[in-house]
């Protein structure tokens, strides 16, 4: 009897706790029209615009893949990054973060639990876009699926961490519209145009490659097509060698993000 | 458990500054197991900062805090399942309902009470489908209290638990706290209501500007302070010598009002009333106030107005 209670107590591990916080966040998300809009409507509108513009209908499959992977990058920015900055700030200013910290949850569990619903939404959208791309546009089968998954998962982690760091510089949920601009603009412009910049100076290309979204999009394209655009496609094994640099950049962002969150994350409003 | 320290909470020479402002300046006190200890003080006295350090939200700049023999900051993980914390402001998302909030909180705890049981404790069952946004201040406070005791804590930290409650709900909250004390729970509480401390506290400390200025059992603290007799005296009439006075009456008083401070209220008052009857003098607006925490508190607050 005693053993049983002990076991059930111990098994209320972090997963159950993350689920409890995540479920509450999911309800709040469903009751927040603005967040629902930027998470669902904007990517759909964007996808609709692309599919009717004929951009994705080109015979050049590489262009189609580039369009779809850019869309995946957009999901990371809108559903994960932007929505989470406003969520972390709102929860901090409502003193929810402090309240959660007054319980048994660890700091990492709180940050993860709040992010969970957005992450689930983002992953679901990415799957929908990839499947829709394959069926509607007739994209080729991916060359290296594990690499795509790695890129997507790494991207989710990086943008959750970036959102937590950006929240530090954001006083109110409304001011997130301004404070998220640097990351949003840099990623939207930089990471998306970089594959098309064959003749840009080396420094510029290097800088663009170092942006947090670029390695994600690189890994997705590499995993899907076997190339990021400038060279001939390589096979399953060959993609791993090409993936080293973007994977390294991605991991560097994750390490830097973890360090910054631990050092700077604000758990209650500034006094 | 081998933690056999006598005190449930030990605070030693605690210091904490925010920027250039030193909020807590060398505070020490003990909370014994199973007692209720009240921290009183003026606004900005450092009560909440002290509570934050005891709860483990921050590390003190100097000094030491132990809760159940452990460091609440570095050993937060081990300690928290045995602590119940009620913050000064609730921090519940406004768009969750009462039962959703309680279910979320229960989901984060090791051994929670059932949600309905916790809501019944504070009489909020009938409001379970109402969003937190729509609750009155008093209802929110009761929900906070329910969540603080949900994890069956050994030590309960309450920061102004009854602010915003109407008198009836305040009594209910007191009853609930008494029941927890009877179960052996240790309570550290801050409050603005002196009668609340007098009703509930075994011992207390009065803080002022980051320091503890008075501490002891409630009876001891009260006994340090005199009772007061206040009345109006017709012009040109002088009081006789009266027994028990703190400071002898010197014949001077403000426009019509006399305040006597006495250590023996009954004796002083009997003499005063006998004298007034014999001379047929009306003591207008006569008040007799027993020694109380309020007197002790006012003495602390006033001592600062006139620096020695």
Description of the structure:
The complex is a heterodimer of chains A (271) and B (308). Chain A is mainly alpha-helical and 271 residues long. Chain A has one domain (13-264). Chain A has helices at 2-11, 14-30, 33-53, 61-93, 96-101, 107-137, 145-168, 176-179, 181-193, 202-210, 213-225, 236-264. With 308 residues, chain B is of the alpha/beta class. Helix content of chain B is 33%, strand content 26%. Chain B has ten helices and twelve strands. The mean pLDDT of chain B is 89. Chain A binds chain B through residues 9, 12, 16-17, 19-21, 23-24, 27-28, 31-32, 91, 94-106, 267, 271, and chain B through 18, 55, 57, 77, 80-81, 85, 87, 89-96, 100-101, 103-111, 151.
Quick rundown:
The complex is a heterodimer of chains A (271) and B (308). With 271 residues, chain A is mainly α. Chain A has helices spanning 2-11, 14-30, 33-53, 61-93, 96-101, 107-137, 145-168, 176-179, 181-193, 202-210, 213-225, 236-264.
